[in-house]
Structure formats: C-alpha cells, structure tokens
UniProtKB/TrEMBL annotation:
Phylogenetic lineage: Eukaryota, Metazoa, Chordata, Craniata, Vertebrata
Protein name per its UniProtKB record: E3 ubiquitin-protein ligase
SUPFAM superfamilies: RING/U-box
UniProt entry tagged with the keyword Transferase: yes
RING-type domain segment(s): 111-170
CDD domains tied to this protein: Deltex_C (cd09633)
Organism name: Opisthocomus hoazin
GO CC annotation: cytoplasm
GO molecular function, one term: zinc ion binding
C-alpha cells in the first residue's frame, strides 16, 4: 500500500487542456469561457495548458508557373472588363412596353411597389415619369400586375440597362447587367485537390479590381471608392460541375454582376468594392471560416445564385450568339 501511494505521488501530473477557438476571430465567447475555466482550474491548484486554434488553410501549397494549366473547353486564362455604358436610345416606356400587357380591369389588390390599390392612381411621389398614374400593366412571363407609373419609376432608379426584374418574384426580363468597376479575372488549374474533392485538381480564380472613381451608375458618382483585399483568390473543383460554374461566372463577370460598390458588411466601410450576392469559396484547405471546403451543397447553391441573376446554361448559348 505504501509503495502504491509513493508511485502515485511520483507519477507525472496530467495537465488538463482547454481548447481555445477564434483567438483572433470576432466572437469573444470561446476565449471568455476558456479564460474563466483557466481561472477556476488555477484556483483549484490545477495546471492549465491552453491549446492554439487550428491553422486556417486559406492558401494552397506553392505552385510553380510550369504546374499551372489552362482549362480545357475554356479559351484564354484571363478576362478583363471595362466600364460599359448603359444602353441608350430607347425611353423607359419603350423598354417596358415589350415586357408588359395593358390591363383594362385591374384586380382588387395592391400594387406592391407603391402599396396603393391597382384600381386607384399610383402613389409614387418621386420624379414623375411620362406615364399616366392610373395605367396598369401585367408582366408577360410571371403575370404580376403593377402601375405602369411605378414600373417606369423603378426602372429609372435602377441600372437602366434595358432589363427589368419583377419586384415580386424576381423574374428577369431582358439581360440583367450590374455596376461592377473595371478589373481583371484570371482562371487556371492548379495541381492540388480541395477537401471533399480528392478525385480532381482545382480551378483557381483570381479577381483584381483597383480603386477608382465612381461613375453615374454608382451610389456616389464622382467620389472615389476603395478596393480592399485584392487580388482575391477563389477555388472550384476541376470537375464537370465546377467547370460549368466557372463558365457561368465568366458570363457574370462580363455582365458586371460579381462585384458592386457599396458598404462592407464586415467592416462597415462605405464606398468600397463588395461581393454582389454570388458567393465564392476563398479558403482552400479547410472550411473553418465557412468560405472553404468541404461543402457538398456549394456548387448547387452558387448555380442557384447565378440563376437568380439571370445566368443559366441558356446564357452560355446567348454569349456565343
């Protein structure tokens, strides 16, 4: 008994380990809990060892120029975009006319733009379009009904690119374009696999947009804008579906829909380049931030986001035409 007691006293003390996550993250919860736990354990005379959070796998292993490959079926490895002027020559009334049917007997419901009854004149109070406020029209694809006065006002407040998006169901009429500033998009294959896609290599996309001055289509024309975090590296699996997503992203880039100028949701900075509702994976070797792999739903989700911008497989045919 005495020998057993002696051996137990001489045995090395096992140090409890308290994992601390998000040491540099935005959430103070885990570090706070770990700190409280450490204080309590120290007060009880127990040694404490805090482990560091796992390293973020933001970047792939180094890749030499000789290892970079072009993507089969996709011409070139770089796409530049310049500032494109909105289509001109047609009045808003002429543009909307091809998407609408006149309604002689409006339904007994509200116009979802001005929230007045369709049977009453439009309640829009801004700059007055050259359309009578009591005219009502139905969009030909989705069938939603609005005051013509309200639709013209909505078009005038948008990008005025010859397209229209139904404010009720988001159906797009025409070809939607955005206000993305000029920049460059590079794309190629690197010889490394993403987590969850061990059977293929990786498509790397590099976006680069420099700071500049806002144009008339931006929130504050004539004012400078910043472009933080560029070049931005993004990743897709080099699979059949991954290449499909890339082809559609190229259409989105040409239509100036991937980025916009606005207020950053992470920093609160205004007049800066921000993502425009098409999510990208910017973390290569893990998914600790939610912007990496594995993510079995990502490719389907981004295809749905592209479709919401009017970019589908039909768009690829349109671009060839």
């Amino acid at each position: 008994l005495l020998l057993a007691l002696t051996l137990s006293l001489l045995a090395p003390c096992r140090v409890p380990t308290v994992p601390v996550k998000n040491l540099t993250g935005s959430s103070p919860v885990n570090p706070a809990l770990a700190g409280i736990t450490g204080i309590l354990m120290s007060a009880a005379g127990l040694p404490v060892c805090l482990t560091r959070p796992p390293k973020l796998g933001l970047d792939p292993p180094p890749v030499s120029k000789s290892e970079i490959q072009s993507i089969p079926g996709i011409s070139h490895t770089c796409r530049k975009t310049t500032k494109k002027q909105a289509k001109k020559g047609k009045t808003p009334e002429e543009v909307l006319k091809k998407y609408l049917q006149k309604v002689r007997h409006p339904p007994d419901e509200d116009c979802t733009i001005c929230m007045e009854r369709l049977s009453a004149p439009s309640g829009y109070k801004g700059p007055q379009p050259a359309v009578k406020p009591d005219l009502v029209g139905k969009l030909v694809k989705c069938g939603h009904v609005f005051h013509l006065h309200c639709l013209v006002a909505m078009y005038n407040n948008g990008n005025k690119d010859g397209s229209l998006q139904c404010p009720t169901c988001k159906t797009i009429y025409g070809v939607k374009t955005g206000t993305q500033p000029p920049g460059k998009m590079e794309y190629h294959i690197i010889p490394h696999a993403l987590p969850g896609h061990s059977d293929c290599k990786t498509i790397r996309i590099i976006y680069n947009i420099p700071p500049g001055v806002q144009g008339p289509e931006h929130p504050n024309p004539g004012k400078s804008f910043t472009a933080r975090g560029f070049p931005r590296h993004c990743y897709l699996p080099d699979s059949e579906k991954g290449r499909k997503v890339l082809k559609l992203l190229l259409v989105a880039w040409d239509r100036r829909l991937i980025f916009a100028i606005g207020t950053s949701s992470t920093t609160g900075e205004s007049d800066t380049v921000i993502w425009n509702e098409i999510h990208h994976k910017t973390e290569f070797g893990s998914n600790l931030t939610g912007h990496g792999y594995p993510d079995i739903n990502y490719l389907d989700n981004v295809l749905a986001e592209l479709a919401a911008q009017g970019i589908t497989e039909e768009s690829l045919v349109q671009e060839k035409d």
